[in-house]
Amino acid sequence: MTKQVRQIDRVIIRFAGDSGDGMQLTGDRFTQETASFGNDLSTLPNFPAEIRAPAGTLPGVSSFQLHFADHDIMTPGDAPDVLVAMNPAALKANVEDLPRGALVIVNTDEFTKRNLAKVGYASNPLEDGSLAGHKVSAIPLTSMTVKALEDFAVSKKDAERAKNMFALGLLSWMYNRPTEGTLGFLKTKFAHRPEIMAANLAAFQAGWNFGETTEDFAVSYEVKPAALPPGTYRNITGNLAIAYGLIAGSELSGLPLFLGSYPITPASDILHELSKHKRFGVRTFQAEDEISGVGAALGAAFGGALGVTTTSGPGMVLKAETIGLAVMTELPLVVIDVQRGGPSTGLPTKTEQADLLMALYGRNGESPVPVLAPRSPGDCFDIAIEAVRIATTYRTPVIVLSDGYLANGSEPWRIPEVDSLPEIRVDFASGPNSEDGTFQPYLRDPETLARPWAVPGTPGLEHRVGGIEKSDRTGDISYAPANHDLMVRTRQAKIDGIARDIAPLEVDDPDGDADVLVLGWGGTYGSIGAAVRRVRRAGGRVAQAHLRHLNPFPANLGEVLRGYDRVLVPEINLGQLALLLRGRFLVDVIGYTKVRGLPFKAEELAGVIQEVIDRVE
Amino acid sequence: MSNNPPVSPTAPNGRPLRGLKLVPRSDTAYKMKDFKSDQEVRWCPGCGDYAILAAFQGFLPELGVPRENIVIVSGIGCSSRFPYYLSTYGMHSIHGRAPAIATGLAASRPDLSVWVITGDGDGLSIGGNHLIHALRRNVNINVLLFNNRIYGLTKGQYSPTSETGKITKSSPMGSPDSPFNPLSLALGAEAGFVARTIDSDRKHLTGVLRAAADHEGASFVEIYQNCPIFNDDAFEPLKDPAERDNRLLRLEHGEPLRIGPDRGVVLGDYGELVVADIAEVGEERLVRHDAHRADPGYAFALSRLDQPAFAHVPIGVFRDVERPSYDRLMADQISEAQTTQGRGDLASLLAGGDTWTVG
Q: Which CATH superfamily is domain A234-420 in?
């Protein structure tokens, strides 16, 4: 039987199941297949903080959403066209996000009276008509998997566990995905357990074959590769891109990379990744706590290494004192904060961008630190290199604010040519620097105001640094009032001066006639961009700009802000950038905030933008 | 600096000091004055820190290491001003964190001789966590903990080594805290080198410093240090010429444990160590000191011997066992990765994984 293949330009699929059902793996494999096929894509993993919440419950639901298209897209999508629900909890947790007419594939084996009751279904939604607005494909995924594996030397439990591969096979057929990658992945992953490998391969094939033969699915779909700019691409998550950016920063600067880190969600993957790259001379130190992680990184920086620490909000709080010491000792240090919902433990696995004011001001005293924020998973690579450049050029700690959405989400990334990466030139002090023939550790470069970086092992430059206020030039302890005033202002001027060394803020205002500017920062770039496109398609005039440098701001920011009647600032916090802009520029920006642990939906933002436009016009 | 013939970082028998295997040797013969910085020393008159500083400055030439390859890292407290008074590289960091900072430095720079200067508040209270983990990892650093059993810089509160019931500014009715025994703590943290010495005994102090430098990995040295302002004469019984020989147990590897002419240490029924009259138990029952025992039980028993306080205090090297340092293990993994897989190539790294080409 030859089935019809229908062309579509994009689709959003959400895999949802119990945290033990392997939904993240399933989504990740489908993403890799989609990436290697050449679609543009964006992903949104969403999982509970509990490793294995009680089976079949709402808190235990884990999902993975993937948006892929034959054209350039910016977000993982607002509402899924297809939901794969492995149990009643997964259906219940996700059904409200579905638009009318969405396809729902459910695993009927799990729709038992007990499982329905566990999540508060009084009647079976597959039978009571509550899903009438959707196309429902009710498939006994578990029992079909078990049946397909009858002749395999695996336990019933292991056979049941392979049901995610059956589902992946089915969806792979439905969207004509290439399968070599997944088959190869399973062979490698289970190389040491051949019987499990065989079972998973067979389950995947059985799912594919089921799609091809069943009457349930009359058509399969094809989403053509996207016409992205020429180049070689790979799919990349924000955490992987940060790790690669740090290695690149190490190679470009010639400084050995030293990572001091304590495991914390959602930043740990950077530690895991960097620990694999000892070939690059990367040293990873899993510290006893967050304080030790940053302390060791600073100690390594004193010794001439590229000192890096990675963490999330709760860890940032603990690192604050050491970051202050790095400000005072004026040593390079890169601090990566993968933001998550707060305060306190907050929402460990959910995204938020509420650490901005902490990054800028969360230390004692006047303690200025450059702050950067990547705008997409791929941009994490460039931002990490930029952080290394600024830290080493200006001899300062630099904070990078990534977030849970960027960290775990992925997108196609055009692999850069190494020759195209920025040059990072680091000169250690090698001799006396003052007129009187002595070495003065706080005698500054007149242009950057950076102090010399004299590393132990350099004869004649022995000196002491520390957290007590330093005397200008000599670096000796000083409590003198005028000196403190001078040093506080000088440290501030050094950081402010970086504005001369960063790209001006670019504004996307195609016709130059917009009255409203939408200004964002960090991980909201995709959502805002998709919303702006919607508004423009509907005839609205709107400009978009996105900050990657939060401290100092690009030099032209004030001018940009004053060029528009109204400035809308959407943030996943309660208005932290808006507060800074109002304070710095006296511009009455309009804040729009949501803190649900999830990225903005493009449709929702488009509505907000349109409202602001309507008010102006 | 003078032009005398070079000295080498060697132990008395001529072999290189174990903790300095990867540190370059100097062909400069330093003198004590070469290690004095131009900064005015600002401790209270009579502070034990002066004696320790003098002993340390006097000892450093013996290391035979270029001055620029020595780094002193400290935290916060009176003792932590140490780096300013030495003409080496140094960092006066933040409270309690010196072992963490030194870990990053030592782990990435095996060519440095790294010394951590800390106190009983800095090292055992706010920085206790970093201290125990640096010891268990066996980072190649030398930790000198100045124990004056009081908070000096904050003007006289009880510390984690102050005796229970101590009356201080923050404990007017007596401290309810039980103190740490720093050596028991270090041994419990798997320290490979543990020693104790006294600020006023320069010869002994220097000998212990030498032994610490001769250990590859973390060396932990407790130095009893007098605070003349807030806890004067805390260690007087161990310094008084009339009394000290009946209280001090000078540890010498391979020698019987003796306290003065008449007393010695024997093994108790439960593995503890017990002080006894030699006349009663006989010379042959005295335990012979063995600093190299792999099992830390004996060294731990030694660290508990001082009950009640100062009745019989062992000083010297309690434990000195070899195991690979953290820095070496870390460096070995890197060289193994580079030997078996070759040096990393950035372009291949970025282009790894599943890729596809457009245009």
A: Thiamin diphosphate (ThDP)-binding fold, Pyr/PP domains (3.40.50.970)
Q: Which among A233, A281, A282 has the least Cβ separation from residue B356?
A: A233
Which of residues 238 through 267 in chain A touch B, CB cutoff 8 A? 244, 247-248, 251, 256, 258, 260
**Nearest chain B residue (CA) to A466:** B92
CA B246/CA B263 separation, integer angstroms:
8
From chain A, pick out residues whose CB is under 8 angstroms from the CB of B353.
234-235
Residue A270 C-alpha from the chain's centroid = 11
pLDDT at residue number A579:
98
d(CA A71, CA A65): 18
What is A573-589 written as a DSSP string?
SSSHHHHHHHHHH---P
Q: What is the CA radius of gyration of chain A?
A: 27
A329: chain B residues, CB-CB within 8 Å: 91
Give the residue among A126, A125, A119, A166 at the shortest CA–CA distance from A142: A166
Model confidence over A219-265: pLDDT tens digits?
999 999 998 899 999 999 999 999 999 999 999 999 999 999 999 99
**Is this complex scored with an ipTM above 0.85?**
yes
Q: Nearest CA to CA, how far is B107 from chain A (Å)?
A: 8
Q: Does B348 touch chain A (CB under 8 A)?
A: no
pLDDT digits (tens, 9 = 90+) for B126-151: 999 999 999 999 999 999 999 999 99
For chain A, percent of residues with pLDDT exceeding 90: 96
pLDDT in tens, A548-565: 999 999 999 999 999 999
Provide the CATH number for the domain formed by A507-616 in this structure.
3.40.50.920
- CB A493 within 8 Å of CB B98: no
- Is the pLDDT reported for residue A126 higher than 70? yes
% of chain B residues with pLDDT over 90: 88
Which one of B104, B112, B336 has the shortest CB-CB distance to A295?
Answer: B104
CATH-assigned architecture of domain B18-234+324-350: 3-Layer(aba) Sandwich (3.40)
pTM for the full predicted model: 0.95
Nearest chain B Cα to A462, which residue? B89
CA distance A388 to A256: 12
Asked if the model's pLDDT at residue B308 lies above 90, the reply is no
Q: Give the count of Cβ contacts less than 8 A between chain A and B.
A: 209
Mean pLDDT of B86-115: 98
pLDDT above 70 coverage of chain B, percent = 96
Q: Are B321 and A223 contacting, i.e. CB atoms less than 8 angstroms apart?
A: no
| Nearest-angstrom CA–CA distance, A335 and B206 | 41
Task: Give contacts of A 286-305 with B, CB under 8 A.
Answer: 287-289, 291-292, 295-305
Q: Kindly state the tokens that stand for A338.
A: 């993968």
Secondary structure (3-state) at A266? coil
**DSSP element (H, E) containing A236:** strand A231-237
Question: Residue B6: what pLDDT?
Answer: 39
How do strand A61-69 and strand A103-107 relate by DSSP bridges?
unpaired
CB spacing of B358 vs A467 below 8 angstroms: no
Given a contact cutoff of 8 angstroms between Cβ atoms, the answer to whether A71 and A9 are in contact is yes
Token pair for A480 = 């003198």
pLDDT at B8: 43
- pLDDT attached to residue B7: 41
Please give the pLDDT value at position B1.
37
Question: At a CB cut-off of 8 Å and minimum separation 6, what does A150 contact?
Answer: none
Locate CATH 3.40.50.970 in chain A. 234-420
Q: Which residue has the tokens 């620029």?
A: B68
Domain with CATH 3.40.50.920 in chain A: 507-616
Q: Give yes or no for a contact between A187 and A126, defined as CB atoms under 8 angstroms apart.
A: no
Which CATH code fits A4-222?
Answer: 3.40.920.10
Residue of B nearest to A301 (CA): B105
